[in-house]
Amino acid sequence: MKNRERVNPEFLTTLDNFPGLSLNTDALDQIREGLKTLNPPVVQTEVIIEDVTIKGPDQNDLRLRVYKPQDVKGMLPGLLWIHGGGYVLGTVEQDDALCCKYVNEANCIVVAVDYRLAPEHPYPAPIEDCYAAVCWMVNEAAQLAIDVNKIGVAGSSAGGGLTAALTLLARDRQFPKIHLQLPLYPMIDDRNNTPSANEITEGMIWNQQLNEEGWKMYLGDLYGTDHIPSYAAPARATDYSNLPTTYTFIGQLDPFRDETISYVSNLVQAGVDVEFHLYPGAYHAFEGLNPDSPIAQYATNEYINAIKRGFERITQKSQTSEQKSKS
Question: Model-level pTM?
Answer without folding.
Answer: 0.96
